[in-house]
User: Fold DEAD-box ATP-dependent RNA helicase RhpA from Candidatus Thiodictyon syntrophicum.
Amino acid sequence: MSFDSLGLRADLLRAVATQRYGRPTPIQAQAIPEILAGHDLLAGAQTGTGKTAAFVLPVLHRLAEQGHPQRHPRALILTPTRELAAQVGERVAAYGIHLPLRSAIVFGGVGMQPQVDKLQRGVDVLIATPGRLLDHATRRTVDLSRVEILVLDEADRMLDMGFIHDIKRILRLVPERRQNLLFSATYSDEIRRLADGLLKHPKTVEVAARRNMPIEAVAQSAHPVDRQRKPDLLAHLIHREGWEQVLVFTRTKHGANKLAEKLTRDGITAAAIHGNKSQSARTRALDEFKRGLVRALVATDIAARGLDIANLPQVVNFELPNVAEDYVHRIGRTGRAGAVGAALSLVSHDEKGLLKGIERLLRREIPMTPVVGFEPSANPPAERDEDDERVRGRTDFAPRPRSGPRGDRMGGAPAARPGGRRAMPARGR
Assistant:
């Protein structure tokens, strides 16, 4: 099957040809015709399968077919993070380069006025994070009453991050008569309930053979190591293997900063990216990483979804995630769109239970071999990460709460106050 056979406009096919895409991916081949036909859609696809093009191309086609640009948004695409919003916005601009359609991206962490100015000039496609979109709606700087197509991208991640109440508020601002597209990497009970309330007689597309499974092109391995020796081992591996581009995941923001500083001292250009960084700092770090100016990008799970780094060869789990499914999303940053990638985990003694939980989810064993000179101690002392306020070694993998306090909008629970109360984050996602 070719893109020519999907029924897309010639000007979209010209843009696709410029991107040097070959044949449509399975999610594109199945989803695009259903969306062009006007159906609501529930789509399940792993990261790196081309899902963004699967909804952006037919959305642009439908808007272009319906006439000239309008002042108010006709398509609304909701994403959980700023990075994903920016990248979807880039794809909208790239695919719509030959169309007279206007788009805008709105998210928190940056000033509102430039966004207001762009909205006032007129927008056909609006890409937004829920919190900042509601800020604009409250200030009446955006009118959602003309939305014809609503897209929820990474819907499971939005629920994980506590956006369900924001999503419900947004649904009250858009017309009841519209086309709804819901894309999710996993199908939890919460996703099913959301889909049941949102979608009308939807078509269903699921391209993954097994839910939550990583792309098969990712080679997975692990090294056992004492926790305190992890930074030295990582630096050793980067030098020994000659990794010129490696994405490293930590659990905490402070830990990401410390590790980036450590790698820099070891002669490895590194930068940290997490929710406490300003949007300009995060954008700059990601851009320098993509351009090869930064060799190691150290990230919290803010980057587990949404980062689109072409041909990223290596992902390292410096620390295993507490939730097994997050491992899948982390390693999904490599091996994207059929490319070959590798994912390595550094596993301390107190993380062996986490590794077992990941292996249960994957239904496979991850080979673990020690590195000469970094073999773990036979009887390691009790290990606890001073950067994490939670005790390590949790072996259950229940989903995070999806109601109640929203938590850190960029992925992670809010810090606990004395007495057990949780600090609520400021608005402005």
